[in-house]
Amino acid sequence: MSELVNFHGYLISSESNCFTIYSPYIVDDDRVFGHDSDYTTMAISLIKHLLSQEVEFTIDSVDEKINFEVLQIATNIELLKNGSILGCGDDASVYLSSTNHSTIEQVEIPSKLMDVNLYQSMQIAWKAELDIRNISQGAYVSKQQYDESLSSRLSLIAQNDDKIIWPPRQMNSDGVTLSKESTNLSPKANVLTWTKLSAAGAPSEFAIRAPILGGLSTVMVEFDEGPKGVFLMVDDEDMEPKIGDSVEFVVRMLYGQEGIVRYGTKARIHPGQ
Amino acid sequence: MVDVAIVGAGQTKYGNHQSGMKGMWAEAAYNAFQSVDKDFQPKQIDEAYIGSVAFGGGQLGNTAALLTEHSGMKGIPVRRVENACASSGFALRDAWMAIKSGQADVVIAGGIEKMNDLTPERKRFWLGVSGDTEWERLAGLTFPGTYALMARRYFHEFESTHDDLVNISVKNHWHGLDNEMAHIRKDVSFDKAKNGFMVADPLTLYDCCPTSDGASCVILAADHVVKQFTDDPVWINGSAAASDYLALHDRPSITQLIATQNAAKKAYKMAGIEAHNIDLAEVHDCFTIAELLATEDLGFTKRGNGGKFARDGAGRRNEGDVCINPSGGLKSKGHPLGATGTGQTVEIFKQLRGEVEQSRQVRDAENALSHNVGGSGATCAVHVYGRNRNE
């Protein structure tokens, strides 16, 4: 019998030869992705869960619907021969299996009903955002600029130069180029302050989706190691953060531009508090 | 070393301006030229520094050359100065330094921004461009959000509530009511400001400055040529600037602007006065929380007391020791990004010479201060002015 675990806003089942991560959302009896999830974000959460549980596994193939570059930077995994398959289900699920996934016993997964109009609006919004013709007419983060700090963005890798530095810097005040040797920030942090920005004031990158979501919530948090950061919130529809709340970090889709999904870390109120 | 005085200052009305950039700049420059008490010709200008973010990208390159050529200043060395909303505060400092260096005697400092000729869709691409684009913008922040983070944290750390910010909004709307150059001239009640549309929780519409078109221009002169232009100059007795981390989350504290504190200390020292000697101050209230923090960072009240300072109405015109934002500030007068810094100087020039509308004249003012902030505090220019030269 499968064991179900809530992790990063998803549900993970584990059986002897297969681990599967599911989106909790249902529309018209179909399992669908949440507002900013896709196969890549779910694959990242599945791998992070397995690593956190110290499960031993190797992977030798990854479904092409999963962005392997992003997965690799976010989880630090490598492909090895004779490993398992990281595959995508027909519904909003991702599995890691050493056998043919279709033979795995299906389990009963708890679900959250999502409003069909909301779901459709978000689908249309993402399609428009990911149109190759959707380009910036002002502020712009190029692919190179974005990739320069991708490991810091996706896996919270920081520099250690007597004190922990994040996001990364190039040089210290002694004129010494900082080493890229790194340390990972804690996967949890505390809320220092927060705001909810109205849709009208949202940056252009979020202009299509913000009205559908009723605005954007952002938190500033402080990590145990000292650095602070600002993050969009996720799964916050039914709650308002409070100063001092503990948050965990999840990789989700940030925005789309020029046909490319930009992934990033978002904050989620820690379910344990 | 040579001292520097302001001998002329002018601006456009802020708001939705009918002219394009060239027309707006020419209007501000013309008003500045006309304000000079004695004969003045544009050809007497040695250098020009024009602040602008170039919002919308209409003329990103060689902005200053285009504008000055269109307004009788062809041929002089010019440049655009960009430091976000502090662009013309830094243009003023650069102009002051040009005279201080002995390389120029008459220098223009100005600023301009055309913001309301963009569609709302296009405008979004230019909102928040002066934050840390890669980290703050991609966390959903434009400046209302950034300052909202500061406000909520301030309320948490000190004895203050949103009502204190409402008092600032009400005061600045009252100050700007009779300012013919102001963008928003209306009396706003406490209840209306308190219950405005929520822009970025906890900041409402009445905590936020408007998006304005505008241009401003001031004429600086070296002490040995001042008499050619006026017998009633306003002296720049202190000029200082500083910078800080661009991103809010990189700063040790988000309830104070270290760049403001550092610039203010230097400017006061240079002018030989202290905060309590200032009679009026044009401070950078892009959001009401920014004015609250500025009253502390500039030394008008102690740290943590900014809420009470606002609650007590300490910055109201002719009621307290110092008048904060007699023009109405960015909240009422408006905020055409690149024009704001030297627009503050225009107000101070006219206030110290007793030339503003009588109903809003600050009485018996001798010393004044302008405080111009870029973004959420990454850059800041502070200037101290006097009716008398700091000998």
Topology:
The complex is a heterodimer of chains A (273) and B (391).
Chain A: E1 3-7, E2 10-14, E3 18-22, E4 25-27, E5 30-32, H1 39-52, E6 59-62, H2 68-75, E7 84-88, E8 93-97, E9 112-113, H3 116-129, H4 143-148, H5 150-155, E10 157-161, E11 163-165, E12 182-184, E13 188-197, H6 210-213, E14 216-223, E15 228-232, E16 246-257, E17 260-269
Parallel strand pairs in A: 4-9, 6-7
Antiparallel strand pairs in A: 1-2, 2-3, 3-8, 4-5, 7-8, 10-11, 10-12, 13-14, 13-16, 14-15, 16-17
Helix pairs in contact in A: 1-2
Chain B: E1 4-11, H1 21-35, E2 47-51, H2 63-69, E3 78-81, H3 87-100, E4 106-113, H4 120-124, H5 143-157, H6 162-176, H7 190-194, E5 198-200, E6 203-204, E7 214-222, H8 226-229, E8 234-243, H9 258-271, E9 280-282, H10 288-297, H11 306-311, E10 323-324, H12 329-332, H13 340-352, E11 367-374, E12 379-386
Parallel strand pairs in B: 2-3, 2-4, 9-10, 9-11
Antiparallel strand pairs in B: 1-7, 1-8, 4-7, 5-6, 8-12, 11-12
Helix pairs in contact in B: 3-13, 6-10
Question: Would you write up a description of this structure?
Answer:
The complex is a heterodimer of chains A (273) and B (391). Chain A is of the alpha+beta class. Chain A has two domains: 3-114, no CATH class; 143-269, OB fold (Dihydrolipoamide Acetyltransferase, E2P). Helix content of chain A is 19%, strand content 34%. Chain A has a six-stranded mixed beta sheet, with helices on one face. In chain A, strand 7 (84-88) and strand 8 form a beta hairpin. In chain A, helix 1 runs parallel beside helix 2. The longest helix of chain A has 14 residues, at 39-52. Chain A is globular and about 55 Å long. The mean pLDDT of chain A is 92. Chain B has 391 residues and is an alpha/beta fold. Chain B has two domains: 4-119 and 211-233, Peroxisomal Thiolase, Chain A, domain 1; 131-208 and 235-386, Peroxisomal Thiolase, Chain A, domain 1. Chain B has helices spanning 21-35, 63-69, 87-100, 120-124, 143-157, 162-176, 190-194, 226-229, 258-271, 288-297, 306-311, 329-332, 340-352, and strands at 4-11, 47-51, 78-81, 106-113, 198-200, 203-204, 214-222, 234-243, 280-282, 323-324, 367-374, 379-386. In chain B, the strands form two sheets. A ten-stranded mixed beta sheet of chain B has the order 3-2-4-7-1-8-12-11-9-10, with helices on both faces. Chain B is globular. The mean pLDDT of chain B is 97. The chains are: A alpha+beta (273), B alpha/beta (391). The A-B interface holds A 136-141, 145-146, 149, 167, 192-198, 200-207, 216-218, 220, 227-232, 243, 254-255, 262, 264 and B 56-57, 121-122, 124-129, 133-142, 144-145, 148-150, 152-153, 156, 197-203, 247-250, 254.
